[in-house]
Amino acid sequence: MALYANAHKLYLASPASGHDARTRSNGKRVRILATRAAASSSSSAVEVAYEKGQLERPKWAGETPLSRLVGAVISFKPVYSLLKLGARQVLISTAEKNGVPWREMTRQILESDVYKELESIQNPSLVYPDYYLSPFHAYDEGNLSWMAAAEAEPATTSMSIRAVPDAKSADEATQVVRGNWLEAIEKHHRQHSGGSMVRDILDIGCSVGISTGYLANTFPSAKVTGLDLSPYFLSVAQFNERKRSQRTAPIQWIHANGEDTGLPSKSFDLASISLMFHECPTRATTNVIKESFRLLRPGGTIAIMDQAPSSKVLQNLSPVLFTLLKSTEPHLDEYYLTDLEGTLREAGFVNVTEVLTDSRHRTVTASVPH
Ligand SMILES: C[S@@+](CC[C@H](N)C(=O)[O-])C[C@H]1O[C@@H](n2cnc3c(N)ncnc32)[C@H](O)[C@@H]1O
């Protein structure tokens, strides 16, 4: 699977599928301005828009009666255990049905030499925030386990398939999700940075390095750092990077808390946080945003990609699916209630912009004033 391919110019889903409907069953509104052939030669020839729902956020999230009801059901231990198992089963079987060899990918990591990376990656004096030590994503040790690390890549690919259900392949779905996100970042930086180059990039919550690899390929001359709280995830990132990357300046992996990185002020031009904040309590989100402001140079860009409360698809999720989703994501309600744009402004960011970059995700970008 070419997860490090820099194919983000191919950022259209539906023209590739040969449809020309305006509104599709998955709620995505597609404006086709060109054919696939035109798209490969010029990314600006195609425009894809994703439809917003009528609410500010889904009824199943936040503090609504429905959300409380789901919360109460989930908090009942025997039900939680069943849901946890169910969520995991649904995830794996859906992935495999869609061409993601989940168990094979996991086996390859678990039977590799990845374990050797841990010693060079782990910061033994790091103190984990409380929320990070709770069971999470159906793993009792949360992200602090080899199993979670080995399953991170197939889980991420499955997320892309859910976000782009019409894609012809898992690879195409991934290219759409990542391509639109990168496009939003490049556009924002071009418009608001005052012409400054992206020389240093920090990927906060880099997990096993998938987002980091995309950023590195998009900005080939930049120095790229991936930072995460899980030394197991970082071990997989470093292991994969050694195998796959041909970069002259290898990606640097740092085991640290994104809330307080210890890195020098004004040392980055781009701070990216993708698919992390829905896994964090609001106080961690606020701290990471403040820390990013400190770390970025004037004109620097912060880019946050995550679930979009305004997404029509998420607002219309079936009760079975949203209950399964909530059963393994303990901070989802807080995430949906967090005013991300307001938090960015409060931290000092300007030019705050939000765009739906696929049927389920938004990319929020903002700049440090000059
Ligand atoms: C879903 S993963 C991110 C995936 C990746 N950025 C991507 O786009 O594919 C969320 C990551 O955030 C990390 N994380 C959570 N809280 C963190 C914190 N305070 N500091 C650094 N990393 C954190 C987790 O360990 C996990 O690897």
TrEMBL record:
CDD domains registered for this protein in UniProt: AdoMet_MTases
Coiled coil: none
Residues of the Methyltransferase type domain: 202-304
Name of this chain's protein: Methyltransferase type 11 domain-containing protein
A Pfam match: Methyltransf_11
Molecular-function GO term, any one: methyltransferase activity
UniProt-listed InterPro entries: Methyltransf_11, Methyltransf_Superfamily, SAM-dependent_MTases_sf
